[in-house]
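User: Can you predict the 3D structure for this chain?
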Amino acid sequence: MNMYQLNCFITVCRYMSFTKAASQLVITQQGISKIISRMEEELQVPLFHRHNSTLELTEHGALLLNSGIKILREYNSVTEQLAAIRAKNSA
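Assistant: Here is the predicted structure, written as structure tokens:
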């Protein structure tokens, strides 16, 4: 799993909709669906219960969401710090 996939998952969780998440991320609904399916295959657990047109997080999905938010926040913080160091060193 990479940061892009994690961000996609978190966005789906925010909207509880593949369609709305895809629109927010400017990709197709099929694209976001494939990303989530690949994550589920890689992790070997379902992340969502899919009921007709509604989504519900599984226990695994809830765990990933809680940890994923922290991971993504830390990743963004580190990349910002690295950019600041680069800018300082190139000045």
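DSSP finds four helices and two strands in the chain. Residues 36 and 42 are 10 Å apart (CA to CA).
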